[in-house]
Design brief:
The protein contains ten helices and two strands; from the N terminus they run ααααααααββαα.
């Protein structure tokens, strides 16, 4: 049976996880979900929650934290005038559609082991991108309104399934379409909020009929984890950003990429053995 107590130890674990992921996000410019999902899965499953459900709760909770972290990131980029708001308006409607389709529909239908394997592939892909540090060469212009909605739907759908903010697809896509890299990163930060909002709503809808896995669950969301991680990560992200200026971040990214391979292998092993 799942543990029914919100112990100080449990809350401390989520606070520590949020502090670490926030610092890494500020230091390396990566999405915290790649770290959060495996550890939230472990923490929740160690409380007696079925492993398949724990993966889904971890993905949903990780995505919901982006509601808070994306705002601070967006403000920083907006002050520098780097956000292409015309692209945000063009891509966001598709993102909402794709995110809702994934989180409110497909997410509930796929087994937890399947999502764990998909997440492992996503982390492995992201680690490879980080390790190689390859930037796509500009090859074309941004598509028209219909094309932007379609691209947004694809970005939102993939993000809704793996609990990511979408930068792993949106930044390469915009760069490939001749959007300067600093504008692509800033615009992706702005798109993170509608992805997180639509996906979070979808996770609540798709998990509405589920019995509460742990006290404080809302659909697939685990609210105590969300609160602790959001507060801690928002607090430590600025510190990571300041430290980044005094360190060789390129070297750190290679080391971190190797750690991500370990996390991906662990998630894949659990998915295939479960």
């Amino acid at each position: 049976m799942p543990s029914t107590l919100l112990t100080p130890t449990l809350l401390a674990e989520f606070l520590a996880l949020g502090a670490c992921t926030g610092f890494l996000a500020g230091l390396l410019g990566i999405g915290g979900g790649m770290v959060m999902v495996p550890f939230i899965t472990f923490i929740i499953s160690s409380r007696g929650v079925d492993a398949g459900l724990a993966v889904k709760m971890a993905i949903a909770t990780s995505m919901a934290t982006i509601l808070f972290t994306s705002v601070s990131s967006l403000r920083a980029h907006h002050k520098r005038g780097a956000v292409r708001w015309n692209l945000v308006r063009g891509i966001a409607p598709g993102i909402v559609i794709g995110s809702l389709a994934a989180s409110a529909g497909i997410f509930a239908l796929i087994k937890g082991s399947g999502l764990a394997l998909l997440f492992a592939l996503f982390v492995g892909f992201s680690a490879t991108q980080m390790l190689l540090d390859r930037k796509p060469k500009p090859a074309r212009a941004m598509p028209g309104p219909a094309g932007q909605v379609g691209a947004g739907a694809g970005i939102g759908f993939l993000s809704g399934l793996v609990g990511a903010g979408g930068a792993f697809v949106s930044v390469p896509f915009m760069t490939w379409c001749n959007v300067p890299i600093h504008n692509a990163v800033a615009t992706s930060a702005a798109l993170g909020f509608p992805i997180a909002l639509a996906s979070t709503v979808g996770y609540v809808i798709s998990g509405w009929q589920l019995p509460s896995a742990l006290p404080g669950s809302l659909g697939y969301l685990y609210l105590p984890a969300l609160a602790c991680i959001a507060v801690a990560s928002v607090s430590t992200a600025p510190l990571g950003a300041r430290v980044a200026h005094s360190l060789n971040v390129a070297h750190l990214k290679r080391v971190f990429a190797l750690m991500l391979y370990v996390l991906a292998a662990s998630m894949a092993y659990k998915a295939l053995s479960g």
